[in-house]
User: Which sequence fits this backbone?
């Protein structure tokens, strides 16, 4: 189980690295599908079928919208090497050096906090469900819903769902405003 | 623990894309990859060995369920992620129409 | 926008309704089986996107559909707020109170207001995603 998940996550990492380095934006968007569909398989293996159904459709709709954007703009990526050539002599590009150092600082900082936080976590597969114990034991009597995820989503934590719907409507209003071509006089 | 670390590596790949790429579309893809890694990490934490999906079937005495709370939260995150990605792409296509390029170094009107 | 070839149109005519029906099943059985409002809503939006992509439409009609789906989304979220307020006014003073009888778990008509919330959230998500898609399509068409 763990080995299979590790292989799939490695495949997702490889797909995302190719996504960030592809020269053609269309192939980058398609390679991004490796990450998304790998995530779907991970959800299925981790016994989360609700998420797998939602993720696989969301992935396809994201792909449609991204291809629509690329169709009406350009497909070519901006290329930039790590070195530049001036009068036959190669110099290290100062910008990429600065980016490299910044990225290294970020990695070290995030690694520090990651190690500190995962030391307090349970190892994989041994989850002490402190919060969800009530949901698991009395969820069916309290909500009457056989699917505990729906019970948590719409009864115990309905405020979160309301906030999610609000974010969705705000995003739609923002998109309609940004994509309006002619301004109102 | 190795799975958590791989998940973190996926997050770092997305972060690397956000920091080093110049193309706005590539930056959006990097943000999406970071979001996916966070979703995966939350679901990995909620898994128990030999657990079953948190759906109660009448007649079965199964008690070893995986945690339903992270699943419920991540379910909302997935749909919100699609909406925010579409918002970012809308802004990107307007920037392309105004400046004629996806290069964030050429877009200097907002510079202070 | 123009539609696609005859092959795509024929296949869409066959499977478009099935995809929509599957989305409805996922939404209405959200409290019994995997799925629910979010997953089913995205599937319903996908069915409509498939129809628009395969058959195409003229821009005036697309604009009118966009207005309608945007209004549908607003109505759905307004209904969610009304149901929450009704739960507040009836019985205990708790927002989002489950005021309908719970029934026996496992039946289609059970779990109080959870199926109603599932349906409303499904309408809201489907209308929102379809509106986003139509906004991009209309932007592309108007530029020509």
Assistant:
């Amino acid at each position: 189980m763990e080995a299979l998940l590790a292989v799939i996550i490695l495949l997702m990492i490889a797909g995302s690295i190719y996504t960030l380095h592809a020269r053609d934006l269309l192939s980058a968007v398609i390679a991004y599908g490796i990450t998304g569909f790998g995530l779907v398989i991970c959800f299925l293996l981790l016994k989360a079928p609700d998420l797998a159904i939602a993720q696989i459709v969301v992935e396809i709709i994201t792909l449609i919208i991204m291809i629509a954007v690329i169709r009406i703009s350009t497909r070519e990526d901006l290329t930039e090497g790590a070195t530049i050539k001036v009068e036959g002599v190669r110099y290290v590009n100062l910008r990429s050096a600065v980016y490299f150092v910044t990225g290294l600082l970020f990695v070290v900082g995030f690694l520090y906090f990651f190690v500190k936080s995962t030391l307090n976590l349970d190892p994989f597969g041994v989850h002490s469900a402190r919060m969800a114990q009530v949901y698991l034991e009395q969820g069916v009597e309290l909500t009457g819903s056989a699917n505990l995820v729906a019970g948590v989503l719409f009864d115990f934590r309905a405020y979160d769902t309301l906030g999610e719907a609000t974010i969705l409507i705000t995003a739609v209003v923002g998109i309609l405003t940004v994509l309006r071509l002619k301004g109102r006089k | 623990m190795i799975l958590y670390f791989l998940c973190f590596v996926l997050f770092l790949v997305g972060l690397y894309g956000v920091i080093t790429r110049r193309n706005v579309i590539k930056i959006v893809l990097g943000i999406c990859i970071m979001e996916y890694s966070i979703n995966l990490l939350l679901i990995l934490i909620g898994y128990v060995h030999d657990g079953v999906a948190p759906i109660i079937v009448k007649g079965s005495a199964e008690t070893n369920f995986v945690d339903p709370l992270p699943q419920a939260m991540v379910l909302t995150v997935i749909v919100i992620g699609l909406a925010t990605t579409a918002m970012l792409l809308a802004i990107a296509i307007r920037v392309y129409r105004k400046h004629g390029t996806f290069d964030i170094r050429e877009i200097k009107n907002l510079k202070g | 926008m123009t539609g696609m070839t005859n092959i795509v149109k024929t296949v869409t005519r066959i499977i478009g309704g099935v995809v929509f029906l599957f989305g409805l099943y996922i939404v209405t059985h959200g409290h019994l089986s995997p799925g629910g409002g979010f997953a089913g809503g995205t599937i319903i939006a996908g069915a409509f996107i498939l129809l628009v992509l395969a058959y195409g439409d003229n821009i005036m009609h697309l604009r009118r559909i966009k207005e309608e789906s945007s209004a549908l989304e607003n109505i759905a979220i307004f209904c969610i707020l009304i149901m929450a307020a009704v739960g507040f006014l009836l019985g205990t003073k708790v927002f989002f109170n489950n005021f309908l009888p719970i029934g026996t778990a496992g039946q289609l008509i059970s779990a109080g207001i959870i199926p109603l919330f599932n349906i409303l959230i499904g309408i809201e998500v489907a209308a929102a995603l379809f509106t986003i898609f139509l906004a991009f399509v209309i932007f592309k068409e108007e530029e020509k």
Remarks:
- The interface with chain C takes residues 49-50, 52-54, 57-58, 60-61, 64-65, 68-69, 71-72, 140, 143-147, 149-151, 153-155, 158-159, 161-162, 165-166, 168-169, 171-172, 175-176, 179, 181 of chain A (CB under 8 Å).
- Chain A has seven helices and two strands.
- The first helix of chain A runs from residue 2 to 21.
- Chain A has three domains: 1-78, 80-128, 129-185.
